[in-house]
Amino acid sequence: MTARSKEDLWHLESGIDVSHSGNQASIAFNVARVSWPKIVSTVIENLNVALSSVEQDTQIRAEGDAIFDELQQLRSEIDRSSTIPPLLGDGGNDIEGYNMELETLRPVSWHNSPWMYTECYLFRRLQTCFARRKSEFWQEYDIWAEQKLANTKMSGKVIFELVEWFLALRSRFIDPKNGTSPLLADHRIAIEDLLQISLWGNTADLLSLLAISPEELQSRQGFQARKHLKNNLVVDDTDQVVNLLEQVRAETHRDREIHIVVDNAGFELISDLVLVAYLLCGNFTDKIVLHGKKFPWYVSDATQNDFDTVLSSLSSPGAVFTDHGRLGESSSLPTFYSLIRSYLCSNPPRLTFTADPFWTTAHPFARLPTFAHNLYKSLQDADLVIFKGDLNYRKLIAGGRWPADTPFEVAIGPLKDMNLRILTLRTCKGDTCVGLRKGQVEEIDPAGKGEWTRNGQFGVISFFDGKPKEA
Ligand SMILES: O=P(O)(O)OC[C@@]1(O)O[C@H](CO)[C@@H](O)[C@@H]1O
Predict the structure, then answer these.
(1) 243 Cα–ligand 1 center, Å
(2) Which of these three, 139, 171, 191, is where a domain ends?
């Protein structure tokens, strides 16, 4: 990694401004002053709840108290906007990369630093507070597990609605024995719906909505909401994606693989699993690899434990969706679970869940070859890599504040030449959105308020094919 000068602080390798917490015009300005303190306070509250059931005078208790002190210290650092200190080692190989980059950015403070780096640092720092303890109890502790489970429970009705819809779709379009479908046009319609379901499933991440009522959550996730949101797609490359999938579907003579870099647990993960199930049972690919996070990240990002929790909520809905009456007795969710399980347990597995440490670094994705060579190779071997959510999108475009009419392939910089096929399904919750027509921003936002890139109401389905075309 090349060292950057102080003057380059707001710039990237590409020379474009990045979202920055010292810049009042950036969403990061408020995120740093409002959201980050709130996140740490929530962690402190959750820790207090956990500590209330831990016995006094035990090692776990003493370590819990030490975590508490470190979190208070972190909270006060953010409030006072102190200089950001290097991360303490917790055995993770990624710590060096974080500290190396901090060195090149120095001196930076919480309220005056690049958004992407500092927010990732914050979540990595929280993890060090737990992972540095001797006891497995804290090393493995997920401070947001309860919130993630509560979110899944609240989403029971829409999860049920979605799975029922999928099962009906499957019986209509796909012969489960040979994956055939009558018409290409049928797949087009189905894939369009599935991409949008997976896309808008991202609207309600827990970080944006630290407290939300069940009614509000369901209104954001339900079918009516999605129909309305369909008009809010500002970039829509669905046709190119469908064409690619149809092409890959025909290439049964070779091993085909699709990778999905998933985002949030709960409803969003189930909306991704519906897409997964369709692609596998429709024989669009032989295998799907889901990439989750190695440790709790951005409040609601999916870890292996969250994946397992989602599977158990499908297999035993009665135990999870207790507030939804008859829903718990429905056989749809267990039917869907059996289908997913059959892909996980087939030999070789057609579906896997993995968590590479690269996804919890602060690196823009163009640094994949330098920092995660094997992962990079595996993504190159895939027919398509789908990136879910806002942070993944920001990492694709390196956190740059690109003008909206910048072509996606320009904003992804060096990723353009890395032999990757990239699809991003993102609801806009940042400063920037690229790939729009000239004049389109004025149509979306006539008053020029700029909220449309931030409020999660607009989304993109952006595709870039970086694989060489066959002659
Ligand atoms: O990657 P996701 O889950 O879509 O969204 C995460 C995120 O973009 O949402 C927050 C609210 O704006 C940001 O602080 C944060 O980076």
Answers:
(1) 30
(2) 139
pLDDT confidence band for 463 (50 / 70 / 90): very high
Task: Judge whether 146 lies within some domain.
Answer: no
Largest CA distance in the chain: 71
**What are the φ and ψ backbone dihedral angles of 388, each rounded to 5 degrees?**
-100, 140
Q: Is 202 in the pocket of ligand 1 (CB under 6 A)?
A: yes
pTM of the model: 0.93
Q: How many helices (H) and strands (E) does the chain have?
A: 21, 7
426 lines ligand 1 (CB under 6 A): no
Instruction: Give dist(CA 1, CA 383) in Å, integer.
Output: 29
Place of tokens 């979202």: 19
Number of domains in the chain: 2
Is any atom of ligand 1 closer than 6 Å to the C-beta of 263? yes
- Say how far apart CA 344 and CA 353 lie, in whole Å: 9
Q: Ligand 1, atom 10: nearest CA belongs to which residue?
A: 208
Render pLDDT for 358-416 as a digit per residue (tens, 0 to 9): 999 999 999 999 899 999 999 999 999 999 999 999 999 999 999 999 999 999 999 99
Atom of ligand 1 nearest to the CA of 427: 4
Residue 182 sits in the same domain as residue 110: no
* CATH assignment at residue 100: 1.20.930.60
Q: Which domain holds residue 43?
A: 31-139
Report the C-alpha gap between 414 and 425 in whole angstroms.
20
CATH of the domain at 213: 3.40.50.10880
